Amino acid sequence: MSGGKKEYRVQRSKAEWKASLTPAQYHVLREQGTERAFTSPLNTEKRAGTFQCAGCGQPLFASNTKFDSGTGWPSFYQPMDGAVDTEADNSFFMRRTEVLCSACGGHLGHVFEDGPEPTGLRYCMNGDALAFRPRKDGEA
């Protein structure tokens, strides 16, 4: 399970996570898995709204921070304030920075320093780790 160092606000047992998530979501969020590139419908999502954690519903990314990175995964240049935590990830003989939901510790993906301005960052997220909530008419 990811995020073993921090006590997260949203706590569930392994059985509770398995019951509330699809097998693909469980694999990504709770076992640090990765979905295949170009398989998530959220990769091409262009409506205004909010990308949330599929595990706990915490808002993570505003749609206006999403961009097409060409990598095959939903990519963002900036998370919402306080929405994510990061940890060093040295698995698979690589040095990367893992991105976790700050509420439940679910594995979302990784962040890289090859994104667009204004941050120069690319939050490369697994679509299985996200849920999209479109903005309703009249919402700011």
Please characterize this protein's 3D structure.
- The chain contains two helices and nine strands; from the N terminus they run ααβββββββββ.
- With 140 residues, the protein is an alpha+beta fold.
- The model has no long low-confidence stretch (mean pLDDT 92).
- It is globular and about 35 Å long.
- The strands form two sheets. The chain has a six-stranded antiparallel β-sheet with strand order 3-4-8-7-6-5.
- A hairpin with a 5-residue loop joins β6 (96-101) and β7 (107-112).
- The chain has one domain: Metal Binding Protein, Guanine Nucleotide Exchange Factor, Chain A (Beta Complex).
- It has helices at 14-20, 23-31; strands at residues 49-53, 59-62, 66-67, 75-76, 84-89, 96-101, 107-112, 122-125, 130-134.
Low-confidence stretches: none
Integer tally of domains: 1
> Helical proportion?
10-25%
Largest sheet: 6 strands, antiparallel
Beta-strand percentage range:
25-35%
Give the CATH architecture: Beta Complex
SS summary, helix count: 2
The Rg value, from CA coordinates, equals 14 Å
CATH topology, anyone?
Metal Binding Protein, Guanine Nucleotide Exchange Factor, Chain A
Structural features:
alpha+beta; Metal Binding Protein, Guanine Nucleotide Exchange Factor, Chain A; 6-stranded antiparallel sheet; 3-stranded antiparallel sheet; globular
Secondary structure topology:
Blueprint: H1 14-20, H2 23-31, E1 49-53, E2 59-62, E3 66-67, E4 75-76, E5 84-89, E6 96-101, E7 107-112, E8 122-125, E9 130-134
State the gist of this model:
The protein is α+β, with helices and mostly antiparallel strands.
